[in-house]
Amino acid sequence: MDIHEIRDRIDQLDDELLRIFNERSALAVQIGEIKKREGLRIYDPSREQNIFRRVQANNPGPLDNQAIVRLFERVIDESRSLERTLSGK
């Protein structure tokens, strides 16, 4: 593949990531609604640690596990912000 084909593929993947991020965020909104209704805390450190362990265990590379955790920390932080917005906390 030449550089243009590779960039086209990256653009396709970016579009897929965008769709996935928004789908994940919509699910976080649903979770935020449940947490609000049930009086649960927004921040659940054990859930986050389980996510980090799972994605590291499934990481085929070339990104190292620390990079994967940093990416997921950001995604989770944005999800938590959505949940807080819903709960008013």
Description of the molecule:
With 89 residues, this protein is mainly alpha-helical. It has one domain (3-87): Chorismate mutase (Chorismate Mutase Domain, subunit A, Up-down Bundle), CATH 1.20.59.10. Helix content is 81%, strand content 0%. It is built from three helices and no strands. It has helices spanning 3-38, 45-57, 65-87. The protein is flat, with a radius of gyration of 16 Å. The mean pLDDT is 93.
SSE topology:
Blueprint lengths: L2 H36 L6 H13 L7 H23 L2
Helix pairs in contact: 1-3, 2-3
Question: How many domains?
Answer: 1
Proportion of beta-strand residues: under 5%
Count of discrete alpha- or pi-helical segments spanning 4 or more residues: 3
CATH class wording: Mainly Alpha
Number of beta-strand segments: 0
CATH architecture: Up-down Bundle
**Biggest sheet architecture:** none
What gap, in angstroms, lies between the N and C termini? Answer: 49 Å
Helix/strand class: mainly alpha
Based on CA atoms alone, the radius of gyration comes out at 16 Å
* Overall pLDDT score: 93
| CA-based shape | flat
**Poorly predicted regions:** none
Helical content class? over 70%
Under CATH, the homologous superfamily reads Chorismate mutase
